[in-house]
Amino acid sequence: MPSTQSTESAWSRSLSSSTVTLILTGLTALAPIAWGTTYLVTTEYLPPDRPLLSGTLRALPAGLAVLAATRTWPAGHWWWRSAVLGTLNIGAFFALLFVAAYRLPGGIAATLNAVQPLLVAGLALVLLGEHPTRWRLAWGVAGVLGVALMVLRGTIPLDPLGVAAGLGGAGAMALGIVLTRRWGRPVGLLPFTGWQLTAGGLFLAPVALLVEGGPPPLHASELLAYAWLAVPGTLFAYALWFQGVARLPVSAMSFLGLLSPAVATGLGWLVLGQALTPVQIGGFALALAAVAAAQINPQDVRARVRGTNHHR
User: Fold this and answer.
1) HSE-up (13 A, CA, CB side) for residue 20
2) Domains in the chain: boundaries
3) pTM (2 decimals)?
């Protein structure tokens, strides 16, 4: 039976490189779009003050379901690698994400991930030897400026612990992205995702019990909210995300995380009536411009223009 990676390679060869990159970028972008719903669901539909429980229920059931379905287990050094990646990409990230989501407005909590591209660029240089272009570094700074305009000049009071948690979550996922690319994946996309979800959930479960105690009784609406976060918002989203990590330049792909604030802020405006000041809107627009610009490599554009002119 051919491996998942060999099947993907055959599919890629049948399309042009630019078309494949565009498709993969679009599919990967669905992950942060799904994650953008986390903030509204957390603040409106989940039990209050249970960020660790929320992270556990989001990751562990989905991970165990995948393990049961695929029956594919880590082997050799992939036991500890899966634990490290699961902790960074899932366990620590979810814990910090939910702390930020409970303590900050959704759009601001999501937009704190604007620092992630710069963190990824630095880590990719050290661990992957991937040199960031000046173009992407400049847009990374622009993304951080967008955060400053939204967070530091906003009229909404900000909780320092929530801000610290949001930045810490961005750092954990940045390291997880780079290590995932460095180590690759030895199995298909679905079991690889299941390993990390299970490891992250097992990391969170004892911490949740120690800090928050046993889970409270859950209503039907809360169970539905957890199901939304666990399946579309976690299982499917992370499978698409890990596919992008494996095949796209990490310095460009990391900018896609800024799509999360677009969804979070849009839902806050549509559903909750949250308003932003003009300065905050400008910062938000700047952050989104950084997402689009980072997907472009000016050197490739110039090469295509030269090639077109040459053929003429």
Assistant:
1) 15
2) 17-133+162-274
3) 0.78
